[in-house]
Amino acid sequence: MNTGDGGRKGCGVQDLAGKVAVVTGAGQGIGRALVERFCAEGMKAVIADVVADLVEQTTAELRDAGLEVTGVVTDVTSLESVEALRDAALEAYGAIHLLCNNAGIGSGSEGHIWEHHVNDWRWSFDVNVMGVVNGIRAIVPTMIEQDVEGHVVNTTSANGGFTPLINSAVYAATKSAVTTITECLWGQLKESGSKVGASLLYPSTSTPGVLATGIWRPGANRPERYDRPGAPPREGRDSLAAFRARMEQLGLPVTFAPLSEVAELCLQGIREKRFWITVPNEAQSKKIMARATSQVERSDPAYLLETNLMTGSPAGTKR
Predict the structure, then answer these.
(1) Of these residues, 93, 171, 202, 226, which one is catalytic?
(2) pLDDT tens digits for range 230-255
(3) Which 3-state string (H, E, C) describes the chain?
């Protein structure tokens, strides 16, 4: 179906005041920024995160700032835990109008793709992909049954959601899956005539710079069941420091873009009923077109073979 409007015919939440948002991965980073922005519109929000200390701290700080929030410790890899999140949100506020499946991790996988430990794959897919699936399974039926305007936003990434960075295979694969899942969700909601819409959030900003989020500490908070020999420490590997060092060697200063811009972008996307919520980027657009051309012409994906300043090394390099 060609909507002819850039994907803006889906349902959305227009009047946000008094509505309820549930955001996973909301203890810090983009998730927290989303909660703060939604609450600035008069929404009530449920802060969900697997790190109990972050839930407690963030909830207390935002309440002290006058925001109406509730914190729920949630493990998105567990359907039962996400169902408990749903029940807590309904008990606190009586409804759920906006669901942001935002929780995500970087596993810290090393080596070539054929050397990645299976537990890196399992952990990443359980959080980044099954976390979205569990959110959809546990909460979307309630949103549909409410028979009022609602919206689901799933956080993806240009890395995998558009084209992959070849030396980030595990993460890119999970975000590619999130993109496809959300496309199918959008289509099925539209086909069924639901008042609930769906969007993909590609964290991006108009302000140049990187986003200081937890994804720069791959391996952080890895549960024991996903442990492996040589895994990054419990606090994660500081990949941001390594990135800054590489950039300094090249004489390129590292600047940071405000996470509030990502939250504003998300809010605008919801209001505009836009499926692809992203800041247009010429370099990324060229890669998207190159990928499509490669598929149509059945040519090699040469667009994948380019210097990647994010990792600063070829695929397979130990970090």
Answers:
(1) 171
(2) 988 877 777 767 777 777 787 888 88
(3) CCCCCCCCCCCCCCCCCCCEEEEECCCCHHHHHHHHHHHHCCCEEEEEECCHHHHHHHHHHHHHCCCCEEEEECCCCCHHHHHHHHHHHHHHHCCCCEEEECCCCCCCCCCCHHHCCHHHHHHHHHHHHHHHHHHHHHHHHHHHHHCCCEEEEEECCHHHHCECCCCCHHHHHHHHHHHHHHHHHHHHHHHHCCCEEEEEECCCCCCCCECCCHHHCCCCCCCHHHCCCCCCCCCCCCHHHHHHHHHHHCCCCCCECCHHHHHHHHHHHHHCCCCEECCCCHHHHHHHHHHHHHHHHCCCCHHHCCCCCCCCCCCCCCC
202 in catalytic set:
no
Domains and their CATH numbers in the chain: 20-299 (3.40.50.720)
Mind listing the pLDDT tens digit for each residue in 84-123? 999 999 999 999 999 999 999 998 998 999 999 999 999 9
Stated pTM of the model: 0.90
